[in-house]
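In response to a reviewer's request, we include the raw inputs and outputs for one of the modeled complexes. The four entities were modeled together in a single run.
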Amino acid sequence: MTDTKQKILDTAERLIAEQGYAATSLRHIIAEAGVNLAAIHYHFGSKEELLDEIISRKIGPVNAERVARLDQVLLESGAGPVAVEKVLEAFLMPMGEAADRTPAFVPFMGRLMAEGLLPAVIRKHMEGVFIRMVAALRRALPDLPEEEFAWRLHFMSGAMAHTMCGAGHFPELGAAEGGFRSRVGRLVTFLSAGFRAPRTAPETTEPRSEER
Amino acid sequence: MTDTKQKILDTAERLIAEQGYAATSLRHIIAEAGVNLAAIHYHFGSKEELLDEIISRKIGPVNAERVARLDQVLLESGAGPVAVEKVLEAFLMPMGEAADRTPAFVPFMGRLMAEGLLPAVIRKHMEGVFIRMVAALRRALPDLPEEEFAWRLHFMSGAMAHTMCGAGHFPELGAAEGGFRSRVGRLVTFLSAGFRAPRTAPETTEPRSEER
DNA sequence: GTCTATACTGAGATAGAC
DNA sequence: GTCTATCTCAGTATAGAC
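The model returned the following structure tokens for the whole complex.
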């Protein structure tokens, strides 16, 4: 890979991690990287495709590790029950190891999630492992109604996004900066309990009658 | 309020609910509303302040209802224990009633959350009730360590954001469209179980030793 | 094959005429 | 209170230098 291309990728990843995708202009990237504006469009075609390549070059090992761990969890449990915690950990922890190798990547991904850029860009890189994780999770929770299960997956992805982003939206609440692993540990505890909760009783979904 | 201003507010709210804040240009808004571009800057000053006014005019009653319900929950429990479910419901349900009155508002707010616009705009409208809700939740969970509690609040806000947004990022998972109340009911079940989970054991936060 | 210079379109913002 | 004209900066496209 040419030096120019490399510099663009590294600089863009860092700036997007710091400021977000929308707030990072191509002109800001080229200024910091010391390259020409058109070089971005020569090497990548567009801002969106640049984003795609930043993800592509780093997400591969993470997802491979995820699949390996998920397979191991399923193997270890054999025909017996699968533990929710193990599945979630297998899916979430590999991101932390990527963070050790390349520090900007986790906040970078967190930013993208927070900005709602998953559908257009990230999904294509994540869909395979995500489906795999969902299947494992379904085996861990065979009695949960399908609709309830589907909603809980949404709750999970929301919580994941905000956790990876780090700061979250209410910094004054004092989210102490633990390492990524401790953060994921707490998230796994929280989500596992949520997934294991009994189905929602129908009357909970009714409007409350009393008014104040 | 002048008719021009009203038309801008209504049109902008609808378009942002449909397409998101970033994707909705002022020129698109004025075209649909049938007004002049400069009218937006005359009445509101900027796109951001327009956003602020759309929120301001609707969030008031919602937050008043939230405070009323939170107070009622605390009153009913007196000196006894407070139920997590009651607190979360008191905070989340009033949004659903706003949805009945003005259908575009919930997806509008969901979009903003999904786009990560909370810190700049929404926080100032929500901070008061949020702090109040956090205090009530703390009373419901007196034994949870502060740091664990803080993280769980982050997990909650992430899950909330994605839930309000409706579709979420993985539509192929088949999130059936229940009404807002059933959705909130499921969310309350999930979050309550998560909040009540025992503290995360330290060893869960350690790196796993085995590799595949 | 790589990279530079420059121009095009559409965004939000602003000044000043009416 | 409203509208026209214009400014700056964004992402994008292309012609041509090396």
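As requested, we also summarize the result in words. Residues 2, 4, 35-39, 42-43 of chain A lie near DNA strand C (CB under 10 Å from a C1'). The longest helix of chain A spans residues 47-77.
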